[in-house]
Protein: LLM class flavin-dependent oxidoreductase
Amino acid sequence: MSTVSHGNFGMWRHPEDRTAQYTSLSYWVDLARLLDDGGFDLLFIADAVGQLDVFGGSAEAALTHAVQTPVTDPLLAVSAMAAATRRLGFGITVSTTYESPYLLARKFSTLDHLTGGRIGWNIVTSLLDSAARNIIGRQRQIPHDERYAIAQEFLDVTYKLWEGSWEDGAMVRDRATGVFTDATKVHPIGHEGRYFSVPGAHLVEPSPQRTPVLFQAGSSSAGREFAARNAEVVFVSDPRPAVVRSRVEDVRRRAVEHGRSPDSVRFLSSVEIVVDSTPRAAQAKADELSRYTDLEGGLVLLSALSGVDWSTYGVDRPIEQFDTDASQSILATVDDSDGLRQRITLRDYVGRLGGFGGPLFVGDATTVADGLVDFAARTGVDGFNIAYHITPGSFVDVAEYLIPELRRRGLAGGDQADTLRQRLFPSGSALLPDEHPGAAPRKRISAIR
Amino acid sequence: MSTVSHGNFGMWRHPEDRTAQYTSLSYWVDLARLLDDGGFDLLFIADAVGQLDVFGGSAEAALTHAVQTPVTDPLLAVSAMAAATRRLGFGITVSTTYESPYLLARKFSTLDHLTGGRIGWNIVTSLLDSAARNIIGRQRQIPHDERYAIAQEFLDVTYKLWEGSWEDGAMVRDRATGVFTDATKVHPIGHEGRYFSVPGAHLVEPSPQRTPVLFQAGSSSAGREFAARNAEVVFVSDPRPAVVRSRVEDVRRRAVEHGRSPDSVRFLSSVEIVVDSTPRAAQAKADELSRYTDLEGGLVLLSALSGVDWSTYGVDRPIEQFDTDASQSILATVDDSDGLRQRITLRDYVGRLGGFGGPLFVGDATTVADGLVDFAARTGVDGFNIAYHITPGSFVDVAEYLIPELRRRGLAGGDQADTLRQRLFPSGSALLPDEHPGAAPRKRISAIR
Structure:
């Protein structure tokens, strides 16, 4: 996230952490170059456009601890990072709740051109009331399932613009005849829906991937249905393999119902990694990092995600961790006499490394690689989204120790692909596959022709 | 403009023109580097988010001749250009009609950070019905004067976010105490207006300029009033010195009524320049360029700007050029027996170099510099916005021949400034001056403190 603390609460206080330089161009350019050289496939940037003001009823703690605020716009750093790299992909978060699909389609087409086909879109529908208040003049956010209904129509519009407006042969560029575009091959999309009216043609000529690679992370029922229909990459974030496996299988099954093959969706698990030359050195590093964790920072985010103010609940009282239909596993206060599925405290949940998202692996390259392979086998995930503790340190370690080990095992690579989509799906093309529902507008204009 | 033909209709057919590569990163990075090295102050990019569909009643001719369509999003190339340059400023066009002020404020704050204070915003209110249909679901654009009322409130919101939300001392970044931001110095703006409700605080910490340098180009009465109240740089575009002088004087006079000093507004005149080592070589180059002008392309833009379909009016019939309250000098059909102020034809008006915007100067460096100096003296403008014929050729010539001559005369320079605002106003600071109406929110939080 283009902020100080995304999930690594307190780590900005670590003497080697550069996260507080997130406003500078060199921070992003250096990071992208490190990842590109180090063999990473993708730089993923989260985003949110409101301040976290549930904890204590105000944004005070979020500001003090720099939890997801201040925050800058991640789309705007992409072209600089693309210019400094050759193969790295970029997955950028933009909400469907605050944008016009006509203008957002132009943005991603622009970035797909500028990056040479290395852009992906992490589709979110936005959760925060504080964002709704400042952007769309609503006291409370649009209800969850309606946000997904809006998001689906939003995507239907963008599919029409990206796939069904400009035919492949539209670009003539003939200096002799003076015909730049064959206007008969540019089609108005004529979209009239419940939420959007977009009659015209796309503003941008076809880009390498046309549709950016589509990422999604929602875990609710509506979110999973949306993922199954639209997403090419799904983020999962839970340390419990059984929970992840169930989610993976559910989305693959739903994808098949939408006419897609089960392996047309890639699952990336959140993971935290502390790796060094020996297990002992890695453990020492993890212990040292742990000294910088910031419990209150974690509670600020937890409160925002759960909608519950955890500021007055004792951090050492037991809580229950359970799964809901909302976008995160969240917590609720419980009576101590209840049968707890997993008896942990708030301090356990948010106050430690690896406590908040996916699994935590600490060790040398062999140990961590074994752990990742085992987690993948038990869950069915295809890869990992590495949540950093400090930048660039966490990524330097992974590039130095872990990726060479994964390469020796044939588990990392793909850096010969021209586009992000081909990097993630090496046997496919740069374009959305024909079986994907978003490709339907492309088939319609082929049929007209 | 991030398109093939902004005003240089037909020039993409010139063998040396690279404009058709506008979708590639290297096109923009190379151009920015050329301008930075060549001593230009600023790269200005226009924008529009609809297809030009008045000529002939469809977008067919606009597409065929590549007139402002296809078009990509200019904001997204800025960071790459900033990373490749040291001093060049960027003036980017964004409309107030289709954006949320809360999100647009974040975008410009982000770019002001990433560029180190080299960003400017060209404020437009958007003219095209085709954009309104696809973005806000309206058949016709919002009426002209209401668009300016929306724009003023939009700016009032962004002034509050940029100048009146985060105090200078808000950023603590103390690793020892764990306080990143002093939350008592971050203020919700509490804006409740006719068009926007934005109660919260800005999302971004203060950037070098806080408010981007504000550009504006409207020439209507509402547009001039808006400029006088808000703009720091005003674009003027007319070859007739008396018309330009009247406009400059009017806006300066109105600025004084808003409590601003008359020289707090810089005027930049559109100009077309063909310069070479000798007058004869320059004239030969102009003659050669003229062979590529595209009359129909010009009529496509003229039709869109005037709202009149000029496709069936004979290009060699006389027309009258007159000034209206709209955003451009436009044309109307007239009876030949009328007393014409200036008897010209459509072919004269749009089918020649220099026919559409500011004055055209052709010659060696001395001749062109003399022409610019004379035009500035007769009009009161402070500088020039050079409309290119071909890229990068037009800029290469200016950098090679003209700028050294202007430097010899002490008329170009300013490249020691840290920020764009200081480059344009060398005796001022990086921030909006206290007398500017947009600085009022800053003074209000100082008073609270």
